[in-house]
Design goal:
The complex is a heterodimer of chains A (about 220) and B (about 220).
Chain A: E1 10-14, H1 20-30, E2 35-38, H2 49-54, E3 62-65, E4 68-71, H3 73-83, H4 96-121, H5 132-155, H6 166-180, H7 189-199, H8 202-218
Parallel strand pairs in A: 1-2
Antiparallel strand pairs in A: 1-3, 3-4
Chain B: E1 4-8, H1 14-24, E2 29-32, H2 43-48, E3 56-59, E4 62-65, H3 67-77, H4 90-115, H5 126-146, H6 160-174, H7 183-194, H8 196-215
Parallel strand pairs in B: 1-2
Antiparallel strand pairs in B: 1-3, 3-4
Helix pairs in contact in B: 1-3, 1-6, 1-8, 4-5, 4-6
The chains are: A alpha+beta (about 220), B alpha+beta (about 220).
Bound molecules: glutathione (2 copies).
One glutathione binds near residues 15 and 110 of chain A.
């Protein structure tokens, strides 16, 4: 008999096309039952008192585990990976040094890619004035990051090697969001190949379907 | 004992890592990287950290990048140094990681808009700095409120997270953010500045500054 799986009550707060795609993909990879709650940014629900009680920062994702909240993608991923290590969110780490390398990769996406994507996609996040200069600067930052990623992906199929990990989905989320902001990704051919490989993963497809269904169920409220 | 080399710049966010190394009491070499002169883009430094960022810590020649990841690793490697509160289980540890990564992904990029607005625009930096002020204001106010009934972020005991917060608010101040009126934050600041490992890190930074000036 396989060892018994840990059981937790899981509920996740998400936004449409937001970085919560990474959390949803992580949950789909783990394969435990969970409920999702889509926040409508357009209605300011992330800054409403009900949600601020869950995350005082007014940001998604937030994962509610047995009634207690955990925020920040990276912390959620780490906890899911510790709790269900055989799901393969991250490659098995043989020591703290390898674990630190995984955290470092995740932190790089969270602290460098994500804010740069914001400059391209929602430049008004970084200025009270003219957005053109922020978008242009964001494009420069993204180009540098994509050059770097493209070089890495010339040697490996996925970030850590032959196998997908949640880091790939996080990178994927970041670069396709810059495309949503009008940034042209076509110069980076290895990134294009990576994109196709990530999108072919069944857990990614399930996460996208789940996000879409949650959005379809609520989008009428905005009309 | 492993060999440690820290790539840093006096005053930059690598100050947090340097304080962590001091707190752990390890012997380390330090190499200042002159960001003003673009040394982070030099082929030599790219060999150390291809991402072109400091802090970068070499442990027996192997790189760990990212403040948060370095701090976490030092915490695991030197548990007696008290960089973090002792976590009883994976959930408690995840909450600490959540704080750590909140600072690196939420605070630091917003502080950068205050201190180095040209990092976020090719145009007029003034409205970026203005936006930076709007972004950090609720963070600093919430921090001040959280500190009302405690000495340190986690309560009675210092942790490296305190130094990470400190670096962020003092750096925003250098970027013209006015911290007056945040009394609990001011008291926290004084406590961090009196912390021995922090003072040793500042002394080490000053020595590096002198070496940089002499080399110039
Ligand atoms: N570092 C955080 C970032 C979270 C974040 O920025 N979430 C965005 C959606 S992608 C959000 O909730 N934005 C709403 C807002 O900032 O008002 C994480 O990785 O969880
Ligand atoms: N998320 C990184 C940020 C590192 C970072 O932005 N370092 C700055 C100094 S505070 C740097 O190296 N800037 C040089 C550059 O970006 O070109 C970390 O926490 O280590």
């Amino acid at each position: 008999m396989p060892p018994e799986q840990p059981r937790h009550d899981l509920e996740v707060y998400i936004g449409y096309t937001a970085c919560t795609r990474v959390t949803l993909t992580a949950l789909e990879t783990v394969g435990q039952p969970y409920r999702e709650r889509l926040i409508l940014f357009e209605k300011g629900e992330h800054k409403a008192p009900d949600f601020l009680r869950i995350n005082p920062q007014g940001k998604v994702p937030a994962l509610i585990v047995d009634g207690q909240a955990l925020c920040e993608n990276l912390a959620i991923i780490t906890w899911l990976n510790k709790t269900w290590p055989e799901a393969g969110l991250l490659p098995p780490a043989s020591d703290a040094f390898e674990e630190a390398q995984q955290l470092s990769a995740l932190a790089w996406v969270a602290s460098t890619w994500h804010p740069s994507v914001r400059a391209v996609k929602v430049p008004m996040m970084w200025t009270t004035g003219d957005t053109a200069g922020v978008r242009e600067r964001g494009g420069q930052l993204m180009s540098g990051l994509l050059d770097r990623l493209d070089r890495e992906l010339a040697e490996r199929r996925f970030w850590f090697g032959a196998d997908w990990s949640i880091v790939d989905s996080y990178l994927w989320w970041a670069y396709i969001n810059s495309e949503f902001g009008g940034f042209d990704l076509s110069p980076w051919t290895n990134v294009a190949r990576h994109r196709a490989d990530v999108e072919a993963m069944p857990q990614v497809q399930r996460a996208l379907a789940r996000e879409q269904a949650a959005w379809d169920a609520r989008k009428g409220e905005l009309a | 004992m492993a060999s440690y080399t820290l790539y840093h710049l006096p005053g930059a966010c690598s100050r947090v890592t340097m304080t962590a190394l001091e707190q752990c009491g390890v012997d380390y070499a330090d190499h200042p990287v002159n960001l003003m002169q673009g040394e982070q883009h030099s082929p030599e430094f790219r060999k150390v950290n291809p991402r072109g960022k400091i802090p970068a810590l070499l442990v027996d020649g192997q790189l760990i990048a990212e403040n948060a990841a370095i701090q976490w690793w030092l915490g695991k490697t030197f548990p007696a140094a008290g960089l973090f509160p002792a976590a009883g289980n994976d959930w408690e540890e995840a909450q600490i990681l959540s704080d750590l990564f909140w600072i690196s992904s939420g605070w630091h990029p917003s502080v950068r808009a205050n201190m180095m607005p040209i990092r976020w625009t090719t145009g007029d930096p003034a409205p970026v700095r203005e936006r930076g002020k709007q972004l950090v204001k609720p963070l600093f106010e919430a921090f001040d409120a959280h500190m009302a009934d405690r000495q340190w972020w986690y309560g009675d005991d210092w942790s490296i997270v305190d130094v990470y917060f400190y670096w962020n608010y003092t750096t925003a101040e250098e970027g013209q953010y006015d911290l007056t009126g945040l009394a609990n934050l001011a008291a926290h600041r004084a406590r961090v500045e009196a912390w021995p490992a922090f003072q040793r890190a500042l002394a080490r930074e000053n020595a590096a500054r002198e070496r940089m000036a002499n080399a110039a």
